[in-house]
Design goal:
Blueprint lengths: L1 H28 L4 H13 L1 H11 L6 H22 L14 H11 L4 E9 L2 H13 L4 E6 L7 H14 L3 E7 L4 H4 L3 H7 L3 E5 L20 E4 L3 E5 L18 E2 L2 E5 L2 H17 L21 E8 L7 H12 L3 E5 L7 H12 L3 E7 L5 H8 L2 H6 L3 E5 L3 E2 L3 E4 L3 E5 L5 H5 L3 E7 L1 H16 L1 E3 L2 H5 L3 H11 L6
Parallel strand pairs: 2-3, 3-4, 7-13, 10-11, 11-12
Antiparallel strand pairs: 1-8, 1-9, 2-5, 5-6, 6-8, 9-16, 10-14, 12-17, 14-15, 15-16
Length: about 475
């Protein structure tokens, strides 16, 4: 009996160490960034069993067998669609500013997506006006409506959008709705999905969350895009989920969410339609062919002619595209950078790029909310303040609610607006989308909005920050330890 117990104990110990060693080699062979790898190794060594379970479920980007196969088949077909679009010579931008040229070249060479000319563009800063505009466009749709959102929460004006969408489907408009399972969990618990499907709308729950799938697919990989496409001519994107901020997350006590959306008219909708078709195929396995842009609608008045570049990221697309684009934009800055983001947990590369820009004499301004809806992120982001402040970066804390808009303005000329937070999850993991505009007049419009945010913010004083309580520094460093995973 004693011998059997001893053998069993040794087998258990050996199995334990073999498992630890196997996971360690797996992490090292993935060639991840050093902070990312070290964080996971420490978690596994300190909390072995929980750490291994967490790594297998959250540590690697795996879509699952079916989605991975669809992703491999999807991208070549998207490349062909982009080439067909760009073969229409008058649509593609032929000249960009010296500031924007490197970024546009990167995206064209890696994604096959060039800047598209002949678009009207308007920024929407008020959620009420944005939802009202969406309802109006849906009510006047003739052919097709496609939407993808991370969060759709019923209530208020969101219900008006749902009613308009149902009415559009009932009059024969082809409607598709793709919603993230985790973000839109409340929506899928209501009667709205059945009402929409009964009206003829294709409603798809993207990346379903389930304990049964926890080891088959990474559960925190989310569909984070926010896109509305109407008649292959009107497009919306930006930071706003399909929610009425008057009723959204009131229990968090951070105030109403403040968002920024772009409404576009023109051939840029065709580019975004190709990206949507890829998302739809990956989730459903069904290939949809977006129609080409309507040539009758591509020649707009010169005073409304904006060149827009779309950058998409996520599994199945070229890796780290938006991260690389932001790095190039920051390194290209010569005078001023203004960044708005609700969550500030940058990669080491991006943190160093921002600090180096400030050391070069660039006026760097970052606007974040004083309070946000994530306790972990709130404390982890503070761990980056000291390095940024030491480099001369101005950090503003917005006090007019939860500032959720995601924008970057470089030298008043190059603008980036989209769904991307400056955190690891958005930069390296989720399905995201960003539009880039190389235009000084549009840059002035974005700067006015950002300056309004600054007017409602409090500037962090570097000297006072250094005098903060020691216990706060300990908490910040504790949560900073998990920053590669947030």
């Amino acid at each position: 009996m004693t011998t059997s117990y001893t053998i069993f104990s040794w087998l258990l110990v050996m199995s334990y160490w073999i498992l630890i060693a196997g996971i360690t080699f797996r992490i090292l062979l993935k060639r991840r960034s050093v902070p990312f790898a070290m964080t996971w190794l420490l978690i596994i060594y300190i909390l072995p069993l929980l750490g291994i379970i967490a790594y297998l479920s959250l540590g690697e980007l795996h879509l699952g067998k079916c989605r991975s196969e669809r992703a491999r088949n999807m991208w070549p077909s998207m490349v062909i669609l982009f080439k067909n679009l760009h073969s229409i010579q008058h649509l593609c931008s032929k000249k960009n500013s010296d500031l924007a040229q490197p970024l546009f070249q990167l995206c064209e060479n890696r994604q096959g997506i060039a800047g598209i000319t002949g678009n009207q563009l308007k920024l929407l800063t008020n959620s009420h006006d944005t939802l009202r505009a969406v309802v109006y466009d849906v009510q006047h749709a003739c052919h097709n409506i496609e939407m993808v959102f991370y969060i759709w929460q019923p209530g208020g004006q969101a219900d008006e959008v749902a009613k308009a969408l149902i009415a559009a489907a009932q009059r024969g408009v082809n409607c598709r709705l793709l919603l993230d399972s985790a973000g839109s969990v409340e929506f899928f618990r209501t009667e709205w999905p059945n009402l929409m499907r009964n009206a003829g709308i294709d409603v798809v729950e993207a990346l379903p969350v389930s304990l049964l799938r926890i080891f088959l697919r990474r559960m925190d990989l989310r569909q984070h895009r926010k896109v509305v496409l109407i008649d292959n001519y009107i497009a919306y994107t930006g930071s706003m989920n399909l929610v009425d901020p008057r009723f959204f997350k009131k229990h968090t006590g951070v105030g109403q969410w403040v968002d920024l959306m772009a409404r576009m008219e023109g051939p840029i909708a065709a580019t975004m339609g190709i990206i949507y078709s890829g998302d739809w195929e990956m989730e459903t396995g069904k290939r949809i062919s977006p129609p080409p842009p309507n040539d009758n609608l591509t020649f707009l008045r010169k005073n409304h002619d904006h060149t827009i570049l779309v950058i998409a990221s996520g599994p199945g697309l070229p890796e780290n595209m938006i991260h690389q684009a932001i790095l190039i934009a920051v390194f290209s800055a010569r005078k001023k950078i203004i960044i708005t983001t609700p969550y500030l947990i940058p990669s080491d590369d991006l943190l160093h790029a921002i600090c180096i820009a400030s050391y070069r004499g660039v006026d760097v301004n970052i606007i974040i909310p004083r309070h946000n809806d994530s306790f972990l992120v709130r404390w982890a982001s503070r761990a980056f303040f000291s390095e940024l402040l030491e480099a001369g970066v101005k950090i503003y804390q917005f006090e007019g609610g939860l500032l959720h808009s995601k924008s970057i303005l470089i030298d008043g000329q190059l603008s980036l607006v989209g769904t991307v937070n400056l955190d690891m999850r958005s930069l390296w993991l989720n399905f995201e989308i960003t539009i880039v505009i190389d235009n000084h007049e549009f840059g002035n419009e974005l700067a006015c909005i950002q300056n309004q945010y600054i007017a409602q913010s409090c500037l962090i004083d570097a000297h006072s920050w250094l005098q903060r309580a020691y216990w706060k520094r300990i908490v910040e460093r504790l949560f900073y330890f998990f920053s590669p995973l947030l």
